[in-house]
Amino acid sequence: MVWTIAVTRIKLLLQSPWSWLGLIVPVLVLGFLDMSIEKTSDVTKIPVVIVDEDETEYSKMVIDRVSKNPAVSVSVHNEEDARNQIETQKAAIGFFIPEGFMGSIQKNDEDELVTMWLSSGSISHGLVREIFASEVKRLSSNSYGANTVLKTYGKSEKLDAEEQARVWKDAWAYSDKHWEPKPLMTVDYKVGVTRESSVKDTGGAASVYVPGMLVLLMLFSFLYNSWPIKDRDSGMRSRVPYSAGRFSVYWFGNALGVLLLQLTLLGLLFSYGWWRNELTLNVATIFGLIGYVLFLNALSLLFAYFVHSNRTWQAITLFVVLCTSLLSGTFFPSDELSSFLQRAAEWTPQYWIVSSLNQETLMIPLVFVGISIVLYVLSTIKAGDNA
Amino acid sequence: MIAAENLKKKFGRKEVLKEMNFFIERGETVGVVGPNGAGKSTLLKILATLMKGSRGTVQIDGLDVKKEQKKIRQKIGYVPQEIAVYHELTTRENLRFFAKLAKESSEERWMQRCEEWRLAEHLDKKVKHLSGGNQRKLNILIAMLHDPDLLILDEPTVGIDISAKQEIVNDLRQLGREGKTILYSSHDAQELETLCTSFLILKEGELLFYGSKQKVRQFGSVAQSENFAETLGDIVG
Questions:
Q1: End-to-end alpha-carbon separation of chain B, Å?
Q2: Which H or E element spans position B125?
């Protein structure tokens, strides 16, 4: 019977074109915001030109890795074009990788290997130099490590040339994989919710994806859950439980219908985030987001019990979504708020879910599930008494 | 079929039903009459197990409405004042939905009822596109899906035109002839006269009168009046 009511609720919600839009628009909005921010961030990146005279595996690797740094925008040119870009200040900084770069690195001879050109207006060369130097140093360290391994291991084992090459390559790759130090001036980009944790490899400027998704999930949870108000007006809030035999069957059936729709929306948003490399697919993330959606469903259902008109409901929806989003620091770091507001922020669901995503813990989702059960029971008792 | 003994209902300090006693026989069609605020809806809700009386007992077929709600609900169909259906769904979808809730597996039976009530041609129309009269018919049919013995209707023809009212009254009369017990609340004296065999007349929570149509005519100061509507109006005040 719960299932019959849930399916009917989904059918009812999907009768409205707004509900369909509610499934599609959030993904479009996130995509649009993501692209807008990406374009804006391109403009704010430091333009860097590189001349690659070596054109080896190593020089290409350095260029590729520097290009991935969110602070710079790299373009490769010949020497004349590169100098021209620097002189006309189209690029803030240039690097010249000479022929023999790879050979020098393999011999751990990186001193004065790369030439740097600065434009007259460059104020950010320190940062870019650190980024570039770090990548060169990384290759040099890898070679040093590989050489050391080969020297120590090769002597005792008496390896032939082919085996030596393989060991050297393995040692190099191992060292590269474990490269830890980051350039001193490199900026860590953080999601503006928690103070401690940083997002791994956002692949660009601070992403709007996670905060956007959390806000949209909350907004649509409230909008979808206006059914108790409509059902009270139409008399269905007493008729359906009357026919079903129990009020709880009616209440949970409808809540389940809305929850399934919310989970569909979550699935779409999650798929988009996964496609854009904004989220990692693991149990903690999935369970965390499901817990968040469940909590939103239970919370909005309890709120809907107290509200008597659709207009009031819409106003409450906006108020709750805006307040919790601003307070929790979804859009800017909460450490910019006063200490009182910071403490208040820790009571918002967005703060908890972002903490859960950053810490990849199952504890917070479990708390969400626990609170949701309490909220469901409360709303069932309150609404059931008045049905 | 229905026995009320010393039934009282209070909302806070306000007494909306005062010591009611009556017994309704099986197969009767009873009009529940009274001005606004007389306690008609409250009485019907108590009989339909939607509300509990503050004192006294009510029994339907020997079952106590307070203690045996579930069994009683299988015997009764309650039609609320509002058109309590999903307006965004079709007539068929609404009927199927409520039939599933009532665990009524025989689609054939309610399809036949739809034919009799001239709703069959509107089965695939969304309720919001039906006329007021057909919406009201659907509202009643939903309460009859599980083929109850007792039908309780709270102003089921409010806001519809005369011909639709007439149709509904005729259909309900047919149900009466089939042996169903009907409790029918309305402000329309003409439709009450056509449909009902006896009357419960309430005023300010008090049961002024319970008896047959003939006895209504002999009741109180307006005895022997030719016009039934006038008679009822005079009694109710």
A1: 30
A2: none
B145 pLDDT exceeds 80?
A: yes
How far apart CA A224 and CA A301 sit, in angstroms, is 10
Q: Which residue has the tokens 């929570």?
A: B205
Classify residue B120 by its DSSP letter.
G
Chain-chain contact of A8 with B89 (C-beta, under 8 angstroms): yes
Q: A118 or A123: whose pLDDT is higher? A: A118
**CB nearest A242 (choices: B73, B85, B100):** B73
> Which chain A residues contact residue B98 at CB under 8 A?
243
Whether A52 and A63 have beta carbons less than 8 Å apart is answered as yes
A169 touches chain B (CB under 8 A): no
Q: What are phi and psi of B38, to 5 degrees?
A: -75, -20
ipTM of the complex: 0.82
Residue B11 contacts residue B39 (beta carbons within 8 Å): no
Task: Answer whether A291's CB lies under 8 Å from A375's CB.
Answer: no
Per-residue pLDDT tens over the stretch A321-359: 888 888 876 666 666 677 787 788 888 888 888 888 777
**Tens digit of each residue's pLDDT (9 = 90 or more) over A237-292:** 888 888 888 888 999 999 999 999 999 999 998 888 888 777 777 888 889 899 99
Query: A235, B81: Cβ pair inside 8 Å?
Result: yes
Task: Provide the whole-model pTM.
Answer: 0.69
Q: In this structure, what token pair is assigned to residue B160? A: 């519809």
Which residues in chain A (191-250) have CB-CB distances under 8 A to chain B? 234-236, 238-240, 242-245
- Which of A295, A240, A234 has the alpha carbon at shortest distance from A2? A240
CA-to-CA dists, residue A247 to A253, A383, B167, angstroms: 10, 9, 34
Test mutation, B71, B96, B101, B110, chain A, max A CBs within 10 A = B101
Q: Is the pLDDT of residue A180 over 70?
A: no
